[in-house]
Amino acid sequence: MKRVTGIGGIFFQAKDPATLRAWYQTHLGIDVQAWGGAAFSWAGEDGQPGAGTTIWNIAPAQGEPYAPGTAPFMINYRVDDLDALLDALRAEGCHVLEAGEASEYGKFGWVLDPEGNKVELWQPPPGQ
To answer: Which CDD domains match (predicted)?
Structure first.
């Protein structure tokens, strides 16, 4: 069974998200959208567009969007078979969060790493 196949997204908090988004847009050319982030389209080895994106997002530092994790960031890892991976992680003694989520964007599950960082696992919908 494959485990992680890529990075689906990087999410982090900022004290002043609007200013930080503007900095990334101005200085690094990131196409920040009204929803607070950007979607980077994938390309194959031949340079042609691929079926997938990596999301980048800055959220306000208020609240605990990555709870029960303790870090101000969360990385979303792309996986092929979320249920099988979560079962394997449980069997290996990892702290898998019980509440998962399914939507038109795919299936999501979470695990805490040994330092308390919340790790998001994402199985994209078919065709992505």
So the answer is: VOC
Chain segment 52-83, per-residue pLDDT in tens: 889 999 988 887 888 888 889 999 999 999 99
Give CA–CA dist 78/58, Å, rounded: 19
Look at residue 52 in the predicted model and tell me its pLDDT: 81
DSSP H or E segment with residue 50: strand 49-60
Question: What domains appear along the chain, each with residue ranges and CATH number?
Answer: 4-28+52-123 (3.10.180.10)
In the three-class reduction of DSSP (H, G, I as helix; E, B as strand; rest coil), residue 84 is classed as helix
Chain-centroid distance of CA 30 in Å reads 17
Separation of alpha carbons 60 and 95, rounded Å: 26
Q: Where are the alpha helices (DSSP H) in the chain?
A: 17-28, 82-91
Residue 46 three-state SS? coil
Q: What angle do CA 17, 49, 119 make, to 5 degrees?
A: 45
**Model's pTM, two decimal places?**
0.82
